[in-house]
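User: I'm curious whether this sequence folds into something compact or stays loose and floppy. Could you predict its structure so I can see for myself?
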Amino acid sequence: MADTAEVRSETQFEFITFSAGGQSFCLEITQIREIRRWTPVTALPHTPEDVLGVMNLRGAVIPIFDLAARFGLGSTPANERNVVIVAAVGGTTIGLLVESVSEILSVEKSAIQETPDIKSDATKHSILGMISVDETMVRVVNLDAVLETERGMS
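Assistant: Here's the prediction. I'll summarize afterward.
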């Protein structure tokens, strides 16, 4: 029984899907710490437009990014319907403002398609792959790239 579970974990991934900028994205479930309702954040001076500010999360101050703005899809109007996905990567915790969270996807590794070469290094680096779900293509976000972009802007 344990062998079957190990094989499944090596070939199958679980993602949380969400909408940002009217587009479908997902993150590996292991990167997500929690999903919270939107609450106003504390703005900081001289931050890039896609950094909304910071939030106190149980004693830790974390930056909140507007993921749609980060990906050049326009700003997300902050309202009570939106959510913040609290995610962790490489020991850093961040919040991502998104329009909504949709579902949990379990997909085989083979179902994740390569990001097409559209002559954009930023796109290729920000999106790890594509998953076809019904009539929609869901983009797998490279959370490292979101942070690297931030570090590159500072």
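Summary: The radius of gyration is 16 Å. The chain has one domain: 13-153.
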